[in-house]
Write a structure and sequence with these properties.
Among the domains are: about 70 residues, no CATH class; about 110 residues, no CATH class; about 80 residues. Helix content is about 35%, strand content about 15%. It is built from twelve helices and 13 strands.
Length: about 400
């Protein structure tokens, strides 16, 4: 067993069931300012929050839905725990012909919003819920197996494992989930080029483990975490009983919640880290900038993000850019400092947190970026079933 949480239940359950009406729509996960601290134009402040979450185009109803999900689940979009991602999806409807004779099929693109949860959010809430309920919470080490069905603690093969298994114990009762690779792998591309996305190609063991772990946690706490979807798992959209392949939104939304976190608390692990905030405004010398760049690449390596394209994606997200920079050193001195400080802050906790955080950024970017120019063509229906992570929260 790797983790145990035991505590007497408290009489307060607000941490598990926050009041979804405590805030107005569009103010999700933003603490209500105290008297005297309310911005002069709160509507403008609220719009800025929506923009930083990448949800400025979401309707009021969609914001209400996301707000309710955040409040009900206790997950924080500003802490990389939950996202609402919009994807362009082709839907068809029948409308009367202008002549009044019969009907015609009309195909249009609409933005369908889906809530997705990171594994960090599932883990934190599982511990908090167990503590609040006064139940014992334990989790096992992950296991992987191949086509032979033999479970192993380590998967050394280059080929992706067939399945991963994770067990969560609630008061000693096991909740076991087996995630099969072909059911949960996220794919990108079209036609013969379609295959696992960058993160599933790079870390199939870790991605599959997270799918098994998230489902096992949901099995242990279905009332609090049921119906949520892990961002790392395949997520077909079900519309009127038919599965329609999702069309992703442009990369502009990749700023999302990650842009809010581009300034993490200052860390001391970087070489020649500035001693004061005033130093941040000073331009770097060529040698000093090179040291900061070297430190950034060291942290990328520690987080298992070594591909130049992946590093450019992270740089774009952490600087709030609309698209990837052409070069990895294409940033201001202040942006370089902020990136290194953010990566340092994650690594100070653990290399696993650094790796998971970078992986979450890449997965979110993959989910939002169009796979190819062919994505603008009409979508074809594909056969399949809804994943086992629960129902999606889509608003049309």
């Amino acid at each position: 067993m790797t983790e145990t949480t035991t505590k007497t239940a408290t009489t307060e359950t607000a941490d598990i069931w926050p009041d979804p009406t405590a805030q107005r729509a569009g103010e999700i996960a933003v603490a209500q300012p105290q008297p005297g601290a309310v911005p002069e134009d709160f509507a403008e402040f609220n719009l800025a929050v929506r923009r930083m979450l990448g949800l400025e185009d979401a309707s009021e109803g969609e914001m209400q839905l996301f707000h309710h999900i955040c409040q009900r689940s206790g997950l924080d979009p500003f802490a990389k725990e939950i996202y609402m991602i919009g994807r362009n999806t082709q839907v068809a409807s029948y409308e009367p012909n202008p002549s009044g004779d019969g009907q015609r099929k009309v195909v249009r693109w609409v933005t369908k919003y889906t809530t997705q949860v990171s594994i960090l959010g599932f883990r934190r809430r599982a511990r908090e819920i167990a503590t609040a309920l006064g139940v014992e919470y334990e989790s096992s080490e992950p296991l992987w197996c191949g086509d032979d069905g033999e479970w192993r603690e380590v998967w050394p093969e280059k080929k992706a494992p067939t399945a991963a298994k994770f067990v969560v114990f609630r008061d000693g009762k096991p909740n076991t989930f087996v995630a099969h690779y072909d059911e949960f792998v996220q794919e990108s591309g079209t036609g013969n080029d379609r295959g696992p996305n960058s993160m599933w190609q790079k870390m199939p063991r870790n991605q599959l483990r997270k799918c098994a772990e998230a489902n096992a946690i949901q099995m242990a706490f279905p009332d609090q975490l049921g119906g949520l979807i892990l961002e790392d798992a395949a997520q077909p959209t079900v519309i009127d009983g038919e599965v329609v392949e999702e069309r992703k939104t442009p990369p502009q939304r990749a700023k999302g919640a990650s842009a809010l976190r581009e300034r993490a608390a200052a860390a001391s692990a970087a070489p020649e880290q500035p001693a004061s905030a005033a130093d941040d405004d000073k331009p770097m010398s060529a040698s000093a900038r090179q040291k900061w760049l070297n430190r950034m690449f060291q942290l990328f390596a520690a987080g298992k993000t070594t591909e130049p394209e992946e590093q450019r994606i992270v740089i774009a997200v952490l600087t709030g850019a609309d698209k990837m920079p052409e070069h990895r050193d294409e940033m201001t001195d202040a942006q370089l400092r902020d990136i290194v400080k953010t990566l340092n802050d994650w690594q100070k906790d653990s290399d696993d947190l650094l790796s998971d955080s970078l992986g979450d950024i890449l997965c979110a970017w993959d989910a939002k970026e169009p796979d190819s120019a062919e994505d603008t063509a009409p979508a074809a229906d594909v056969d399949g079933e809804q994943g086992e992570l629960g129902l999606e929260s889509d608003q049309s």
